[in-house]
Design a protein that fits this description.
- By secondary structure, this protein is an all-alpha fold.
- It has one domain.
- About 70% of the residues lie in helices and about 0% in strands.
- The protein is built from seven helices and no strands.
- The longest helix has 26 residues.
Length: about 190
C-alpha cells in the first residue's frame, strides 16, 4: 500500500511539472492548467495539505520560471497574492466534492473560473491605485477587466476560462486514470 501511495505521489509531482511547463508554452489568454490542478488536487488527493501544495507548487514553479527565463514577469505586484488565494480557495472547495464524477467536476470548472475572476480583480482593485476604494470603484474595476477577455480564443473570459478548465481537468483526470490503471493498481485516494 505504501509503495502504491508513493507511486501516486510521484505521479502528482510529475503532473505539477507538466502543468508548470504547459503554462510556459504559448497559449491563448487565461487558457492555462493551474485552476485544473486545483480542482484535480483538491478532489483526488486525500491529504488536504498535499492537495493545496500541488496547485500552489505548479503556480509558484511556473512563476519562478517566467521570472528567470522569459520576458513575462513571474512576480508583478501584491495583487498576485489574490491569484494565489483564489487557487487555495478553489482547492479547498474541490476537497469538498463528495462524489468525483463528470457533472461535479464540470460544475467545478465553472465555479473555479468565476472565483478566479472575482478574486484576482478584487485584488487589483484593493491593492492598486487605478480605482477608488468605493463600491463604484470596484464595479469599474470589474467592468474594466472584461475587455481584456474579449479577444480570447473562445470569445469571452468565462467561456475561455471554463473551456480551459474543462480541457486541462479532462487531461489531468484522464492521465491519472490511465496511469492508475496501467501502473498503479489501487482504488484508494492519494496520501
Amino acid at each position: 500500500m505504501k509503495a502504491q501511495n508513493n507511486k501516486l505521489i510521484f505521479v502528482a509531482t510529475g503532473l505539477i511539472l507538466v502543468a508548470a511547463i504547459a503554462r510556459l508554452l504559448p497559449h491563448p489568454p487565461n487558457f492555462a492548467p493551474i485552476a485544473s490542478l486545483a480542482i484535480f488536487g483538491g478532489s483526488v488527493i486525500g491529504n488536504k495539505k498535499y492537495a493545496i501544495i500541488l496547485p500552489l507548487g505548479a503556480l509558484l514553479l511556473s512563476d519562478i520560471l517566467f521570472q528567470l527565463f522569459t520576458t513575462t514577469p513571474g512576480f508583478y505586484d501584491i495583487s498576485q497574492s489574490f491569484v494565489y488565494g483564489a487557487f487555495i480557495l478553489i482547492t479547498f472547495l474541490a476537497t469538498r466534492i463528495k462524489k468525483v464524477n463528470t457533472p461535479n467536476i464540470l460544475l467545478a470548472c465553472v465555479w473555479s473560473a468565476a472565483i478566479f475572476f472575482i478574486l484576482s480583480n478584487f485584488g487589483v482593485w484593493l491593492t492598486g491605485q487605478l480605482y477608488a476604494k468605493t463600491f463604484t470603484g470596484l464595479v469599474e474595476c470589474y467592468t474594466a477587466a472584461l475587455p481584456f477577455y474579449k479577444n480570447e480564443f473562445f470569445g469571452n473570459m468565462q467561456l475561455n476560462s471554463v473551456m480551459s478548465n474543462v480541457f486541462f481537468t479532462g487531461l489531468l483526470f484522464g492521465a491519472y486514470s490511465l496511469i492508475k490503471k496501467t501502473v498503479v493498481s489501487t482504488n484508494t485516494q492519494l496520501a
